[in-house]
Write a structure and sequence with these properties.
Elements (H helix, E strand, L loop, with lengths): L8 E2 L2 E9 L3 E8 L5 E7 L7 H15 L9 E6 L5 E6 L3 E2 H8 L5 H20 L2 E2 L8 E3 L9 E3 L6 E2 L32 H5 L6 H17 L9 H10 L13 H10 L10 H11 L4
Antiparallel strand pairs: 1-2, 2-3, 3-4, 4-6, 5-6, 7-9, 8-11, 9-10
Length: 292
């Protein structure tokens, strides 16, 4: 049962409807009491409120996004705590995402649209990486779309709940938000199986910007073909495929150019050092056809 109901008020916002429940949080559509504008309320599920690592990751997501202003990263408007002591985020209201689009369209997305959206996501990831942040959970549900009409939609990268902070990678320490310390136990797997880089299957502590490169490669493969890179369903089989099985690039032959196929192949390299950087991917996408 949702924690909030229509009509409830939270820090100047009135809950209109329950939208969905994720692994650790609930999402609602709300309106600002003063202006009537719609927002999204993301509330930590009460079952996780006393779990220090989950609560810290949730609070870190809010603090990180609050300090980011990028046209292709979802904007957090405020962070707060409900009377029940559950932390919550107030975000811009963007009701569509790539998962929903794939479900409603029943298939793949044309290369021209994929190139445009990929360029926007890559630009957002470059911004995160420059601030020492690794997303670690790229997937269709975490790419919001500003319009239901795909040719007009802009991509907005969302959900930094699993983001890893790598201080040594910062361009400037002043770019870093003040975050709770979260220690990931060695051997832990964090992410969504279909898009997880080989090194993350071994240990989530191995995450680097190249892990996001692999995740983006998996995402592009899915958008172009209509199916995930590997379609086996159990954890052990997926782990084996991501670690050892060559990607089925032949599935891209009929739906993409040779240049984009070659780029995706490099992004899906099993060895971390063999993958391009996100900045290199941006340049390649521009050369292939992403508008500058």
């Amino acid at each position: 049962m949702p924690s909030l109901k229509p009509g409830d008020q939270l820090s100047g916002f009135r809950i209109e409807e329950f939208v969905e429940s994720g692994a650790t949080s609930e999402v609602y559509r709300a309106v600002a009491c003063e202006t009537g504008s719609s927002v999204a309320i993301k509330l930590l599920h009460p079952a996780w409120g006393s779990v220090a690592t989950i609560r810290s990751r949730f609070e870190n997501e809010g603090r990180t996004l609050l300090g980011l202003r990028h046209p292709n990263i979802v904007r957090v408007l405020a962070v707060g705590e409900a009377p029940s002591s559950q932390p919550f985020l107030t975000l811009e209201w963007i009701p569509n995402d790539l998962r929903k689009h794939l479900q409603s369209s029943g298939g793949s997305i044309a290369e021209s649209a994929v190139l445009r959206l990929a360029g926007q996501v890559a630009d957002a990831l470059c911004t995160l990486h420059s601030r020492g942040l690794i997303h670690r959970d790229l997937k269709p549900a975490n790419i919001l779309l500003t319009s239901h009409h795909l040719p007009e939609a802009e991509a907005k990268l969302a959900d930094l709940g699993l983001a890893k902070h790598v201080p040594a990678a910062l361009v400037s320490p002043t770019d870093a938000p003040v975050l709770n310390r979260v220690s990931t136990a060695r051997g832990t797997r964090l992410g969504t199986w279909e898009y997880m880089a080989p090194e993350l299957w071994i240990d989530a502590k191995n995450a680097s910007s190249k892990s996001d490169v692999y995740g983006l490669g998996c995402l592009l493969f899915h958008l172009l073909t209509g199916k995930p890179l590997y379609t086996v369903s159990d954890e052990h089989s997926l782990m084996f495929h991501h670690l050892f099985e060559p990607p089925p690039l032949e599935r891209l032959d009929s739906c993409t150019s040779s240049a984009l196929l070659s780029l995706i192949a490099s992004m899906l390299a099993k060895k971390v050092d063999s993958r391009p950087s996100m900045a290199e991917i941006q340049r390649e996408l521009t050369a292939i056809g992403v508008p500058s």
